[in-house]
Amino acid sequence: MDEKLARRAGEPGFGGKHIGDLVAAQGRATADTLARNGRPTRQIHIEKLDERAVGALLMHFMLETILAGYAMGVDPFDQPAVEEGKILAKQYLAQG
Fold this sequence. Notes:
By secondary structure, the protein is mostly helical.
C-alpha cells in the first residue's frame, strides 16, 4: 500500500506493505488468538513451497486422518454416509 494512502486511511503502519504481509499477519493473529483462548493450534512452516512439499503435506494429513480415526475407534476407510449418498443420488436421478 502506498504510504500516503495508508496515512490518509488512518493506518500509517500499513504503508509499504503488500497483500502477503496482510495474509501473514492475519494468520499469525488467528493462531495467537486461538492459543490465548485455550484452543489447540498448530502452525506448519514450509521452507520451499513446491510440488514435493505440497505432496508431503497432503500425505501427512492423510496419514494423520487414518491414525486419528483408528485412535477414536472409527474405520477411516468405511464411509457409510458417502455410500448412502451415492445410493440416494441414483434413486433421485432414476425418479426424475
